[in-house]
Amino acid sequence: MKIAVSSANTQKISGPAAGCNSFLVYETLNRKILKKEHIHLKADEIFSMLKLPLSKLPSHPLNGIDCLISESLGQGMSHKLTDQGIQCLATNGADPDGVVLAYLQMSPA
Question: Could you tell me which InterPro entries the record lists for this protein (predicted)?
Fold first, then answer.
């Protein structure tokens, strides 16, 4: 599973996700974090600038994510991503690693 977390400073979860250009991307397996990578989006890669669905942009750095976690998510963006099979979660948690681990514990194996 691939999880993207909006994080302006790579230390805390931030939002709104639509305008965020900095994400932590987690590769997970069997409820464990295998890899964490910081992704910095170019101006034209930010969600609010996308003209096509993420699934139709194979070279986009966040293509292939299964879940997006952010401090805040706009309803329109959430609907667009959910329609593409991407789960969207808003959280008031601050610690990216902790929120991802909690999500993994609650998701089906």
Answer: DiNase_FeMo-co_biosyn_sf
pLDDT at 84: 92
Low-confidence ranges of the chain (pLDDT < 70): 109
The CA-based angle 13-16-20, given to 5 degrees, is: 80
37 has which bridge partners?
Answer: 25
Give the model's pLDDT for residue 81: 93
Question: What pLDDT shows up at residue 107?
Answer: 80
Tens-place pLDDT, residues 63-77: 999 999 999 998 888
Burial class (CB within 10 angstroms; exposed 0-12, middle 13-18, buried 19+) of 1: middle
Nearest to residue 16, comparing CAs of 24, 25, 6, 28?
6
Q: Domain boundaries in the chain?
A: 2-106
Cα–Cα distance, 10 to 8 (Å, whole number): 6
Asked whether the beta carbons of 7 and 62 are under 8 A apart, the reply is no
